[in-house]
């Protein structure tokens, strides 16, 4: 399970919409299973079916998280036109250990879909997302 404040959850959808029709990506940080911060990142692939985080940005975010005593909990990206399921490439490139992989689908633009997965060595497991109110 991953716990995400409503505001950050909405922010992921806003980021996906802003980047449409290209994929967007970013990092979620926090402690335990609770997300407290989101970092939208540059998709260096500038594609609508691939993403690659900009390595220097990624390094800077990981460093900043560490300095704040937080961990990288999740990597998110958008699927502008496909469902919120990991593609074969997503599975192949899911090499960061111990993180959740969130996908924001805009396949139905009126009803964005956010799903979370654990992907370990090619094995995908869906993970529940708990959306928390801001004052919790
Ligand atoms: Zn994908």
Strand order of the largest sheet: 3-2-4-5-6-7
- The CATH architecture can be given as 3-Layer(aba) Sandwich
Weakly predicted, low-confidence segments: none
Indicate the proportion of strand residues.
35-45%
| CA-atom Rg in angstroms | 14 Å
In CATH terms, what is the fold-level topology? Cytidine Deaminase, domain 2
Number of helices: 3
Helix content: 10-25%
SSE class: alpha/beta
Which series of helices and strands comes N to C?
EHEEHEHEEEE
In total, the number of domains comes to 1
Per-chain topology:
Blueprint: E1 2-5, H1 6-19, E2 25-31, E3 34-41, H2 55-67, E4 71-79, H3 88-92, E5 100-105, E6 113-120, E7 123-127, E8 129-132
Parallel strand pairs: 1-8, 4-5
Antiparallel strand pairs: 2-3, 2-4, 5-6, 6-7
The structure holds zinc ion.
Structure summarized in a few sentences:
The chain has 136 residues and is of the alpha/beta class.
List keywords for this structure.
6-stranded mixed β-sheet; binds zinc ion; globular; 38% strand; 3 helices; Cytidine Deaminase, domain 2; two-stranded parallel sheet; 8 strands; 136 residues; 24% helix; alpha/beta
Kindly describe this structure.
The chain is of the alpha/beta class and 136 residues long. The protein has a single domain, classed as 3-Layer(aba) Sandwich (Cytidine Deaminase, domain 2), CATH 3.40.140.10. The protein is 24% helix and 38% strand. The protein is built from 3 helices and 8 strands. The protein has helices spanning 6-19, 55-67, 88-92, and strands spanning 2-5, 25-31, 34-41, 71-79, 100-105, 113-120, 123-127, 129-132. It has a 6-stranded mixed β-sheet with strand order 3-2-4-5-6-7. A hairpin with a 2-residue loop joins β2 and β3. The longest helix has 14 residues, at 6-19. It starts with a strand and ends with a strand. Zinc ion is lined by residues 77, 79, 87, 90, 103.
